[in-house]
Each structure stands twice: as C-alpha cells, then as structure tokens.
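P.,

For your records, the input lines for the assembly:
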Amino acid sequence: MPDCAAVGLPAPVFVLSGYDAFLGFLLIAAAVPVLALVTNKLLSPTSRSGERDLTYESGMEPIGGAWIQFNIRYYMFALVFVIFDVETVFLYPWAVAFHRLGLLAFIEALVFISILLVALAYAWRKGALEWS
Amino acid sequence: MTIASSTQFLCFAALSAAVAIGALGVVLLPNIVYSAFLLGGVFLSVAGLYLLLNASFVAAAQVLVYVGAVNVLILFAIMLVNKKEAMAEIPGLALRRVLSGAVCAGLFVLLLRVAFITPWATPGPEPIGDEATIRIGEHLFSDYLLPFELASVLLLMAMIGAIVLARRDVLSADIVTGEPADQGLIEKSRTPLLLETPAPASPAMPTPVLEKR
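Structure tokens returned:
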C-alpha cells in the first residue's frame, strides 16, 4: 500500500509463507467454472425446446419443483457434521504443533476425541445416522 | 517468499469489494437460497481478509466454522422451509424498515467514530506468521488444557441436545404446554427418505427422489 507512509502508518507486512502458491491455485480454481461456462456458451448448439429447460436429475424426468420441503432428518446429518466440524478447529492447532508437543498432548487429544466418540455413539444409538 | 505489497493491496481491494457486494446481495436478493450462498461467499472473503492480516488460524477457523458449519445449517434450514406456504404480510413494514435502517445507520456511525478516534499508528506486536498456529497449539495443550477438554464436553452436550430436540419422539409431551409433542415432526422421522420407485433407471445408482411431504 503506497499511501500508508504518507499518513504515518507502518506498511502492513504479509509474513505468512507459501501463500503465493495459494494465490495461484485460487486464481486457477476461480477461472475453471468461468471458463467452463463461457466455453459452453460459445461452443454448444442452442436449442430452445421444452426439455432443455428441465432440471437435470440423473437422466430422469424431474417430478415437481426443486424447492420442496426436505425431510427433517437431513438436518440431523447437518448437526452431526457441525459438531465434528468444530472438533476439527480444535484439532488443527494440535496437528500443526504436533512435533513440538509431547506424549502428554497426544493422550490429551485422544481424551478429546474419545469424548466426542461418545457423542458419535449416542447419535448412532439414537438413530440419527439411520437412513430408514 | 511472500506476496508482494502491491499484490497484497489488490487482494485487499478485491476481498473488500466481494464482502461489500456480497453482503448487499444477501440483504437485497429476494431468493433466500441465493442469499445463503452469497453469505458463504462473504464468509470466505472475510477469511481471506484474516489471511491478509497474518492470522492463518483465524482464517481456517472462519472457513471451518462459518462456511462449514453456520452456512450449512442455514442452507439446511432453508431446505426445511416450504416455499409454497406464502409468508404472511408483515404489518407496518415501512415503519420496521425505517427503524431497522436507523439502527443500522447508528451502528455505522459508531463504527466510523471508532475507526477515526483509534490511534492506529501505534505499532502492534510483531507478526509471527506461520509460528502463530503452533503457539496456539502449545498454549492449548499446556495452560489452556482444561478449557480444551471442556470444549469436547460442551460439544458432546450440544450433540445430545440437538438430537433430543430434533427427534421429538424422545419426549412424549411438550415440556412447556404439556400437550403432545409436534406429531408432524415425529411422523416425518418415521417415513422413509427414499420413495419406492417402480422401475429405477439404473439400479447401480439409485436416484434419491425426495418425498413431497
């Protein structure tokens, strides 16, 4: 930022390493859907028959609208996912600092995971993971 | 090798624009599915801003918690909403809009004031970059050990509470009113998710045809 020195602010320093490659990947990943859609638009033949406007549903004719009321049990899967997603946040610094932490930290992480395994077992027992 | 200063400024501008435009889209778009996906984009852009501020762990937590958890829950809540049940007309919509606009403008003025009276020039602590997440891990497993383990107990409680609340057949009656629990939810929890399709097109990949209530 060139104007930071003018107002007396220290220039922000980006000290994380390896993120130039991340930026490259991000740009490529962002370009892929854009390129795919633009290529489709340019190359594909255009037809405006009725079937073309149908929603793609594995080759079958879609029944009804796309926005229906879903079964409440899908929400159970989301809830179970969220619990273990938050668990990942706690385990991430453990994994990064693994080589500096000793055996004690390993056991502590095992305790942490085993308490959450109780949660998984409870969800399993209560049938939250059953499809029917 | 790190990102150059000009690239950093470009990233900051792009992320700020994405946050501002995305947030406006969340509020202004009439379709709440678009709003939910735009909210995910806003969360991702905020994670990018954290990354520019050398806070890689906060960025990862932002992606995991907000994009992974909060936004998924919002999307599932939208999936559970039946669109055909038209929402009732809100009485006094104009007055509500004026009031909420006034509250938002007040918050904006407050933030502006904070931004202008804060002495930003004071040098903060030296950024330690990749070391930060390791430091967090070391603290988490030494002096913050008890909160760390209590967090897992909290997650266990959250899981049990969510299952008890979502599966009402655990409770036979509503706690507050004493009436029988919402039968609709229980009945839906008993119906199979997959309808019996008479002749599936490909048995290897059965198409989940969602039941229509």
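Two observations worth noting. Residues 70-132 of chain A form one domain. Chain A has a mean pLDDT of 80.

Regards
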